[in-house]
């Protein structure tokens, strides 16, 4: 093992040690905030006054994490995490803390690599940026996969809602039945909508927030159609039947569109991999014969 490789391993070890230390400090801060929260709850319980709320109830965060949360990038990250199915505030703060930890680890690794390697500094300075934004690619991919899954199960879900409404169960009870019996992203969103309605939000606000959060055109159209029941007094069963038929037509058109794009997509692999082999098989004997005749 040469000296440069040893120095690289030492720098990576220091970066890992700094990352572990930072995560330990964040865990200590979280434990301290939880203890402060318990003390404040105990104070409220002893005083008998629910308005005795101190500033220690809010969880303590590092200034950098708080600045990221309050920025436009933090708003975009919160929305993207919501589309990916991560909407708890604790999970959001944990995600931002992990990104800050990766940024600090990337800075430490960059400082060591600048001293021991001959790579250009712009390339090395891009390492912390890549480390900070690498989790965004994971979130975006998860959000896209979740949106595709919602679009796939939406027609069947509308059919089940229509059957529940026709049987006299009711729209809310049908959403609850689907949320309890199905394991898919749309049933999770229904569970969140029902939870928001239980704490006092109206059905209109909860459904509109779901449509805005997911930003799926088919789901937005379904929500707008359901809200027409409250505005125009249209029967819910008729609305759901029409929406189910429309969603199936849209899915059929998308499948036809994907089938029409298939020949264009497979053209490049055919030209790169199959055509050379086919030319070798067809023209190979002729080339050998020509070379032998002129040999």
TrEMBL record:
It is a multi-pass membrane protein. Pfam families: T2SSF. The chain crosses the membrane at residues 6-26, 100-117, 123-140, 266-291. InterPro entries: T2SS_GspF_dom. Its main location: membrane. GO terms for cellular component: plasma membrane. It is found in: Cell membrane. Residues 158-283 form the Type II secretion system protein GspF domain. Keywords: Cell membrane, Membrane, Transmembrane, Transmembrane helix. This is Unannotated protein. It comes from freshwater metagenome.
